Amino acid sequence: MVTGATGTHLSDHAHIVVTGGAGFIGSAFARRYIANHPGARVTVIDKLTYAGNLANLAPVWENPRFRFVQADIGDDVAITPVVASAHAVVNFAAESHVDRSLTDPDVFVRTNVLGTNVLLRAARAAGVERFVHVSTDEVYGHVATGAATEETPPKPRNPYSASKAGAELLAFSYFTNFGLPVIVTRGSNTIGPYQYPEKATPLFVTNAIDHLPLPVYGQGTAIRDYLYVDDHAAAIDLILHRGVAGEAYNVGSEDALNTVELAHAILGRLDRPQSLVQFVADRPGHDLRYSLDSTKLRALGWRREYDLEATLDATVKWYEANEDWWRPIKSGAFREYYRRQYGDAFASATAARGTS
Ligand code: NAD
Ligand code: DAU
Q1: Per-block average pLDDT, block size 10, for the chain (356 residues)?
Q2: What pLDDT does 345 receive?
Q3: 81 C-alpha vs ligand 2 centroid, how far in Å?
Q4: What pLDDT, on a 0 to 100 scale, did the predictor assign at position 6?
Q5: 228 near 315, Cβ under 8 Å?
Q6: Cα separation of 340 and 351, whole Å?
Q7: 3-state secondary structure of 220
Q8: Cβ 330 vs Cβ 206: under 8 Å
Q9: What is the pLDDT of residue 349?
């Protein structure tokens, strides 16, 4: 039994439904949960969109306490019976890439808002002990100075973050009106193993490995708070057990870098020239700074294990050692996305040098 003064009595044998568990952070959480809670059962529900990858679950696939269900969180008929036997739901499932939300907002609303509503309804019917909704620091929008606390009002500025803010508000409404024990987490920019290489960090690392240019938006001055994925997964595990229902928790490293600094840090680690940085058109509506105050999470006992140097070291090393994971992704449908996103000239320069 885990018995936090403020938390839940979620049993060691609890059945946890993890949605979006074939993605980057959800799979880290599922792998961690199976390893750290020896009696618990984990069911991953995932639609397997372009971002979902069963290889991310290979380490737990054969475990008798693990189960995988391929389903869309918006599909009531498929979701309700799976959630019916759950003691807790942790909702990672989402469309997660800001740039894609600028070209196709609809799917972001469908999955992130409507899909979350289907899950909330199923969790309410099941009477779950916990519903952890995984949200993002992007809901605060651009933070010009200081750091956002959980009390800072949401001010999302792109379709992705607007859909995430909508989902949060909906989740809280199930707490307020129906007593569903909802907790919301707002994590910062997370990096590490198994991250789909559309996101800046894995894109920069894998391009740099291949001596390819790194596309940096605008002047590269946008600031993010970079957090290692295992630290994010550990925070969600802690919040699941010890967090207070009806509350939100920021999950941030409080280590800021701008994009040029990120690119330079990656190139340096791979012994590549800084001249591989190539400035490209800026992201429209680009939030130029995110910053989180994570005091409330630390009060629950969370400490990150990876400082910024360790985060970058571990991330770069993983992509160096796991080309078998990312090369098939970059040579598939990703190519078309890359061409659309960065333009023919940039993509052709990349292709000419032998990858994506
Ligand atoms: P990801 O894109 O790597 O994974 C998302 C997963 O959700 C994929 O496996 C995908 O197949 C699945 N999915 C998408 N639509 C679905 C649907 N309709 N039904 C079922 N499954 C579906 O994303 P990630 O980076 O691992 O992010 C996970 C969660 O954490 C998201 O909710 C995201 O908003 C949030 N978050 C991400 C970060 C970050 O930096 N990556 C930071 C804070 C919060
Ligand atoms: O902060 C949390 C958020 O972090 C999550 O909610 C999102 O799901 C996740 O994708 C991430 O969003 P960002 O927009 O911060 O991450 P991304 O990796 O797309 O971009 C990081 C920074 O790098 C951002 O300022 C934009 C910039 N960038 C991004 C790409 C893809 C570039 O300069 N070039 C690029 O090619």
Answers
A1: 57 96 99 97 98 98 98 98 98 98 98 98 98 98 97 98 98 98 98 98 98 98 98 98 98 95 98 97 97 98 97 98 97 93 86 47
A2: 86
A3: 35
A4: 59
A5: yes
A6: 14
A7: coil
A8: yes
A9: 73
**Among 196, 265, 259, CA closest to 229:** 196
Q: Is the CB of 19 under 6 A from ligand 2?
A: no
From 129, 138, 168, 255, active-site residue: 138
Tokens encoding 144: 């010009």
**CATH code for the part of the protein at 4-191+224-251:** 3.40.50.720
Distance 199 CA to ligand 2 centre (A): 6
Domain ranges of the chain: 4-191+224-251
160 in active site = yes
The minimum-distance atom of ligand 1 relative to the CA of 189 is 40
Closest CA to 245 of 93, 133, 138: 133
Atom of ligand 1 nearest to the CA of 137: 43
pTM for the complete prediction? Answer: 0.97
The single-letter code of the amino acid at 93 is: A
End-to-end CA separation in angstroms for the chain? 48
Which residue, among 179, 337, 297, 318, has the nearest Cα to 246 in the 3D structure?
Answer: 179
335 pocket-lining for ligand 2 (C-beta < 6 Å): no
β pairing state of 223-225 and 256-258: antiparallel
